[in-house]
Amino acid sequence: MRGRLVKFADLVAAYERLEATTKRLEMRAILSELFQSVPRPELAEVVYLSQGQLRPEYEGVELGVAVSLASRAVAEGTDAAPAHVAERLRALGDLGDVAQELLAVRSAVPTEPLEVREVYQGLLDVAKTSGEGSQDAKIGVLRGLLARTTPVEGKYLIRFVMGTLRLGVREATILDAFAAAYGGGTKEARLRIEAAFNVSSDLGVVAESLVDGGLEALGAIRLTVGRPVRPMLAERAKDLAEVLKRMEGSAALEFKYDGLRVQAHLDENGGVRLFSRRLEELSAQFPELRTELPLALRTAPAIVEGECVPVDPETDEIRPFQDVSRRRGRKYDLDKVADEIPVVLFLFDVLLEGTEETLGLPFPERRARLEKLVQGSTRIRLATQRVVHDTEAAQAFFDESIAEGCEGVMAKSLAPESAYRAGARGFWWIKYKREYTQGLADSIDGVVVGAFHGRGRRAGTYGALLLASYDPAKGTYESFCKVGSGFDDAALQALPERLKPFETAERPNGVETGMEPDRWFTPGLVLEVRGAELSLSPTHRAGLGKVRAGAGFALRFPRFTGRYRDDKGPEDATTVDELLRLYRTQVRRESTGDDDAPEGAPALPPGRKD
Ligand code: ATP
Fold this sequence. Notes:
6-stranded mixed β-sheet; 20 helices; DNA ligase i, domain 1; alpha+beta; 8-stranded mixed β-sheet; binds adenosine-5'-triphosphate
């Protein structure tokens, strides 16, 4: 079998071709060719490696290699002096380039080609090694691999380790490539493959079933406890009348709790794992939920979803979401903080109950199941719900929700088609928040792509950030505002440190803007802003040309809300299509004579006809 193993050189050749293009179609072709050339046992590994990962993202496997450690490995693996490596790093700015340069002039040239499997195993060992002596062990593995790479292989190995591959390969591109390789490239194949990914969150698993049995085999991918499902998402409506119209007159309204979305997985032995909206594991942060869930649910295994909100321990009132976000980032004193900031998990959905997958059932049936499943406890409760048939009843429920400390309502369709649509945003769920009745409908989650130096009181930190919206169709990040307000002193001081991991010398591929910030960042950090309105501007490129040729959406008077969306990845930021809908909502408001358009707003462009 040895001869069939994939050579690392083949993967690196694909990396080189991917790096040389930004065109999604070309990327799809390169990846589809690569995947088809790989034998089944190595396919998942190659899929993860082409994403710049070792395991599916939700597992959170990290190499844990800092630049100092990687520099030492490069020095030892190329017989160069550490000072020389440091000097070349200053000159070239990329440790991968340094490795390539030094490997080209080393004395001992490797004879036996490296295989992908060896690299993969080595890197997995690096990731798994922790504790005392782990630094030396990690260096040992990397040095061993470097000794056997060609210069160009060394470059990509080091970039992989440093997390700076910059191939521009996103999940969507890989799904495109799967559709091309195993589904004849049709739209239907793409949709089915994406649906399989949405329930498994694992591109390796999807690839393997495609190879095993083509598109038909995807249906056999089961929900698995411990493997998170990508969350179903909601659309917005301009008012409660629209909510009811979209839902054909009747809807289940629920309190919309403002906290942290949590997907809880309970196994048959009472083990609990908790995942965030972006599928990061939160289990360690909420020990009390892990204790209570097995007691609060009548059946195991189960997968349920809810919103985790902080409550006042004395009055049981809901507290501001900031309290729960303080717990989210905690690594120490987890039990102590659990007493200080108690939380309640308000459950609103059930995806798996015992051995039965319930996510395909219509929502009313899921809710009925959930009500039976949850016996409730201090920390685990059901989301408050009421089925309404008219706007008066909807408004009354909305008011109750606000009075209880919630931010609005979440409307859920009662239609037979109201299955849980993993990973999809649609009108089966509609969110309606209090802030929709004030100024611009809803806050916007923007990705930081650049920053401007501060002056005066802000000298030494950033004065403003350049934010972008995401376009999933093109895979681009397009600017929509420069925001400097809303940052208090502490937030300002912390900015350079927070943004450091994303710093990059040039405008990253796929970032579109007419502005020239002082610093560029790889899209990564997401934060929430509000503004007076969306207007059109030639400087900003978000949704360029969607309303008027040559102009993108620009947020007027943007202000940071103080909320970092650590629970969102850059691809979860507000999309350009959402901006378009927000833009149209405000146009409609004015045309319907609502008086909440911002004062002094310029004449708004014509709205849509529907
Ligand atoms: P989105 O999740 O739509 O991208 P977001 O993260 O900015 O947006 P919101 O716009 O505030 O969040 O609203 C959606 C979120 O509301 C859900 O993801 C969930 O975390 C939360 N939520 C609170 N109560 C409920 C509920 N009863 N049903 C569903 N989701 C709820």
